[in-house]
Amino acid sequence: MRQYFVLFIFGIILAFSSCRTDFDTVASSGDLKFSKDTVYLDTIFKNIGSSTYQLKVYNRSKNDISIPTVQLKKGLNSKYRMTVDGMSGSEGKIFKDVTLLAKDSLYIFIETTADITDANPDDFLYTDEIQFDSGANLQEVALVTLIQDAVFLYPNQNLDGTKEKIEIDGKEVDGFYLSENDPTNGNELLFTNEKPYVIYGYAGVPENKTVTFEAGARVHFHANSGLYVGNKASLEINGTASTTDKLENEVIFEGDRLESLYSDIPGQWNSVIFEKGSMNHSINHLTLKNAVTGLEFRSPLNTIEIKNTQVYNCVEYGILAQNAQINAVNIVINYAGIASLSCVYGGNYSFVHSTFNNNWSGGSQLAVNLSNSLAGATPETNPLTQATFNNCIIYGSATNEFNLDKNTSAPFVYQLNNCLLKFGSTSNSDYQFKTDTEHYNNIILNENPKFYNVSQNKFNIDNTSAAFAKGNQAYIVPADILGITRTSPPDLGAYQSQDFPK
Fold this sequence. Notes:
Elements: H1 2-18, E1 26-27, E2 33-34, E3 38-45, E4 53-59, E5 65-72, E6 80-84, E7 94-100, E8 104-112, E9 125-132, E10 139-148, E11 151-153, E12 165-168, E13 171-177, E14 190-191, E15 197-199, E16 202-205, E17 210-214, E18 218-221, E19 226-229, E20 234-238, E21 251-255, E22 272-274, E23 282-284, E24 286-289, E25 293-298, E26 304-314, E27 317-336, E28 339-352, E29 355-358, E30 366-371, E31 384-390, E32 393-396, E33 402-405, E34 415-417, E35 420-421, E36 440-441, E37 444-445
Parallel strand pairs: 1-5, 3-10, 11-15, 13-16, 14-17, 15-18, 16-19, 17-20, 18-21, 19-22, 20-23, 21-24, 22-25, 23-26, 24-26, 25-27, 26-27, 27-28, 27-29, 28-30, 28-31, 29-32, 30-33, 31-34, 32-35, 34-36, 35-37
Antiparallel strand pairs: 2-4, 4-8, 5-7, 5-9, 6-8, 9-10, 12-13
């Protein structure tokens, strides 16, 4: 009998507790606390949605409260949208009677998609406020977004609703060819520094045409996009040395997400492909980052000149050269899932005062790979007629950062002079760095170059570096990647040594 009485009492308690409704709450008194008083949504391009940002709202009181309204000040006309504790409200703009329990909190997630015409014309900021309640209990949290205008380049839509295509590797991919007389954009083969460019799909350079990038040009590639320089087409990148950390004169290739969260995430876009038969390429002061493969050269017809160029954070390769001819000075590459520099299927290469590093978080990645073969090619081998590295640094987080993939059925000619190199001990005759003078001269083995900050891709050195003043004057490039005059004897790598900021 006693058991039935206990169950009866428990049932009464359960019934009363389950009947609790919003009437158990009290009205908000305007004492909400917030994780921040302003939510800054990072810069976006016009009409491209932002990332999602978070605001936390706290009820510090002992009472469960009901907030009559949580809304955007501009109401249904606001370019912001929210969810409040998972609720979407009226079009993500207006929420009624939001309950917040005592000593508890709720999450608000905020996004925006806006046009440049929505922003203040003086500073290009788009703003609004999240309003909690009204009248004497009104509390507000500001929302601020910088909107950047841009030139958008993308495939046209065909009459049947499909997107325009171009052919790469025998497959049709979303893409288009740049035009000298586009009715909207004018000359699409000339990229200036007036506005950034956003590319969707592959932008192709037509046969017998040259695409030119002026100093200060900014090019942003959407996911699965890239640049395709086809047969008999050419590319010129005419960046110059910058005087500030803003890299105002550098040409920059990167993804189209401007939020700081995406600043160093690999694989946001595909690659710049130089197809077999392309020609007359020159690259100066390019910074390329966050691609799958940065620069991919497929047997261009003549020598490619690359100067003062940085390639970072690529899923596969920083530079992949297939039977190419490259003369390069002041090159810096870091973070690549397979190799920072990979020269395969032969070719002819000269690298001077360059820094090849690889701190990808793996174990099998390389800084430099050389090969005179290619699986599936016909023939499978091709002569490596020259691969010289003078006054260079080849380093990284793996035990061995240098690899020779030599097929004896084709020539394999290489030489490293005055280089700092990381490589574990081996009895392989191809890696006798101290005794094989045909291939190696003045090699500094496994000594720390003491880069300023590898995680931030800052490969400057000072006078405590093992690379300090170890270069050969015969190979000197007068100015480093920043335009600083080199001293004699020169330092190894792309940077002239200097004191680091304290």
